[in-house]
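Researcher: We're teaching a course module on how sequence relates to structure. For the next exercise, students receive a sequence and then see the predicted structure as tokens, so they can try to spot secondary structure elements on their own. Here is the exercise chain.
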Amino acid sequence: MNYSAGLASKGALVGLFFGSSLFAQELPRAVPAEVGMSAERLDRLTDVLEEYVDEGRIPGAVTTVLRRGHVVFEDAVGQRDREVADPMSADDIFRIASHTKAVISVGIMILQEEGALLISDPLSRYLPSFERSTVAVPTQDGRYQVVEAEQPITLRHLLTHTAGITYGSGPAADRWAEAGITGWYFAHREEPIRETVDRIATLPFQAHPGETWMYGFSSDILGAVIEVVSGLPLDEFLRTRIFEPLDMRDTRFYLPPEESDRLVTVYGARLGQGLTRAPDGPGMRSQGQYVSGPRTSLSGGAGLLSTARDYSRFLQMLLNGGELNGARILSPTTVRLMTTNHTGGLYEAGDVYWQPGTGFGLGFRIRLDVGASGFPGSEGDYGWLGAYHSYYWVDPVEELVVVHLTQISPAFGLDDEAKLRSLVYAAITESRAR
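Model: And here is the predicted structure for the students to work with:
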């Protein structure tokens, strides 16, 4: 059977059922005590976050906590737009930036489960432009020389961010800047993602594949792989294979103009300056062009918009072993593979994103040692963060999902992530940990 044709048929079947009771069930809600949590202690989340708002440290936030598959806390604090005193709502839409990466990882694993690819495959099998990758090696005179990569980039290298590809930094940053490929923002681009990725392939990378952990365009490249293998545009693949089955009704790359009033305003938090509204227009630290831009580039690394409700459903699917409300996205064995450390010591040695006691899986930071990390949690909990100061984590031991969304970039001097983690675990009254 032709794979693309078969995939289109599956998408059509999903469309037939989308909206039925099978896929439109809201996540159940529970009184915290029913699932081993304290309502009084969860209320401290609101108190602390409102204090951050009152002090002008954050403009607003939406936070959702799930325990044992039930919503036990959902709150919106502060304002969606401070200048017009527009209050934040729980269903507001956020730029989720690097939360997109986990969605792309799931897309790749869907294709592996269907026999369309293997994550051990060389990237060049699907994107021939990567047949002869190069690396910029620093020289003693402060310059660099370009050499051939010591081994081929694999899909697994991209999933684990060990392909040696950054966001345009490194010895050959001048070449990346000349090519106009720096930073994670793509919404202003008028070229399809495949064209951008093929230009990335011509540039020298910062390290040899498998040499170290480096954060960058890996998930954007995987988005192009999904398009090639599935025969579908990335937005259509994600919609039919993930978003519609999970009833993630507000998750997409670009926002319909009629819903623009739901998009949360971006602010910056600089030391000693308080919050400042980001400028309008394109750019990494602006309001962006998610409504009025060319709507062409589909960034698998940082391009999605979503809500706390939608992303909670995505994470609950992973916590459930790949299934939600009868929609099977992945096998439990695949989820286990994704949430296992794949990087050894490479993550620790590689980047400022590393935290003590953690490793990295196929799209997530994985906690390996609670004591070494110094923060409450469980061995095996996993999660990540976004460039607009949002973050999430999943704790399989405690059957916990947490999503916290704000829109702050840059976000210097903020400690709300650590506070939130401490408060959530302090609210657990019945622990599954040994």
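Model: If you want an answer key for the exercise: The longest strand covers residues 70-81. The first helix runs from residue 3 to 17.
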